[in-house]
Amino acid sequence: MTTGTLTAPVRPTPRAVGARGRRRLLFVAVLAVLALAATLGVRAAMVRADDVRSGTEAVTAQQFAARTGVKLTLLGVTGGGGMIEFRYQVVDPDKASLLLHQPDKRPVLVAEDSGQTLAMLSRPHNHKAELNLGGTYFFIMANTRNAIRDGTKVTVVVGDVRLEHVTAQA
Q1: Best label site of 2, 34, 105, 149, fewest CB within 10 Å?
Q2: Closest listed residue to residue 33, CA positions, set 143, 127, 136
């Protein structure tokens, strides 16, 4: 009679996530952020830069705040480079609310080196949201075609004014 030995099945050992795995994880994370932004109704589109800046007045940061009701505190590149965060502080709630309610007052971003332009196509916040004096808020926009990168100089257009040479930060 022969005796056999029983052996446990060999299980592969878990391997460390390599560069390919990290890229896949980053890709999935960027897709999730983009899906979230689309769910929230924030969309961006490429438009012609000369159409956006023409007919607008270049102003200082202080004049921009006085005319728009918002002080720009950060133009950030986030989501693995696929998203732009437009963070601002409210200095005049009545003027700032126009950013939410009037499509022609939504921020438009122009990459000064390439002329690529990002514009919001839909309302960035809940239409019933009230902005508080001194409150800090933000918009998230898709960074279509990676138009803006860390260090890119950007012109921000809101209505008939533009704030030039804002440096995007990662």
Answers
A1: 2
A2: 143
Cβ atoms 103, 46 nearer than 8 A: no
Give the SS3 label for residue 114.
coil
Q: What is the DSSP string of 21-71?
A: HHHHHHHHHHHHHHHHHHHTT--EEEE-HHHHHTT-EE--HHHHHHHHSEE
What's the rounded Cα separation, in Å, for the pair 60 and 63?
5
* Residue 143 structure tokens: 């960074």
Question: Measured between alpha carbons, how far is 20 from 22 in angstroms, rounded to an integer?
Answer: 5
In this structure, the strands spanning 136-142 and 117-120 are unpaired
Structure confidence by residue, pLDDT tens digits, 88-132: 999 999 999 988 888 888 899 999 999 999 987 766 655 566 889
Burial class (CB in 10 A: 0-12, 13-18, 19+), 40: middle
Closest C-alpha to 109, from 66, 166, 155: 155
> What is the distance between the alpha carbons of residues 27 and 25, in angstroms, rounded to a whole number?
5
pTM: 0.69
Listed residue (100, 99, 75) closest to 86, CA to CA: 75
The length of the chain in residues reads 170
